[in-house]
Automatic annotation (TrEMBL):
Native source organism of the sequence: Acacia crassicarpa
Main location: membrane
Protein name as annotated: DOMON domain-containing protein
GO cellular component: membrane
Alphabetic keyword roster: Electron transport, Membrane, Signal, Transport
Length: 189
């Protein structure tokens, strides 16, 4: 009996060490591109993480949005700021950075979201975006971009999502609790 308890205890300790060491929160993640950000946040839904550096005097926001657990080759992910929205209506008015993974190739583009029935069509956002790229590696998609925001902003509503791709068209995201709650106020400074 005592031997069995020791085995169970030993297995439990090893399992907890493995799970702790394999968990990749934002603070212990290093980008391959040697990019460094001043802040990061493990987002509460959809296995996502946000990294950013905000220069309030210029309004320049450098971001990396990392979405883990991508196990399909026909998937889209998006991260968006909503300069005019609220937490109750975060989607309409959102200005999205979208990455589509299709047949092993990743494509990034911008999409202004005007309503809940969006198909994430490509278009210009209400603020300039430069350096927009996306990568797929190790079952995760990372979107990088620089956004030029209003210099007076210190917080904004943001939202993030995932869904499937059919043909070349992003399909609606699921309506699960995680999807519907993937929004919050982001304090930039």
């Amino acid at each position: 009996m005592q031997t069995m308890l020791k085995l169970v205890l030993g297995f439990s300790v090893l399992t907890s060490l493995f799970l702790t060491s394999s968990a990749q929160n934002c603070s212990n993640y290093t980008f391959n591109s040697s990019r460094v950000f001043s802040k990061c946040r493990d987002l509460p839904h959809l296995s996502s993480h946000l990294y950013w550096t905000f220069n309030q005097s210029s309004g320049q926001l450098d971001i990396a949005y990392r979405h883990d657990g991508i196990n399909s080759t026909n998937k889209w992910v998006a991260w968006a700021l909503n300069p005019t929205g609220s937490l109750t209506a975060a989607m309409p008015g959102a200005q999205a950075l979208v990455a589509i993974l299709q047949n092993g190739t990743t494509r990034a583009y911008t999409s202004p979201i005007s309503s809940y029935s969006t198909q994430l069509q490509a278009g210009n956002l209400s603020f300039p975006v430069t350096g927009l790229t996306a990568t797929y590696q190790n079952s995760e998609i990372i979107i990088f971009a620089t956004l030029s925001l209003n210099r007076n902003v210190s917080s904004m509503i943001h939202t993030w999502q995932e869904g499937m791709v059919s043909g070349s068209t992003p399909q609606a995201h699921a309506m699960s609790s995680d999807n519907l709650n993937a929004k919050e106020t982001l304090n930039l400074v």
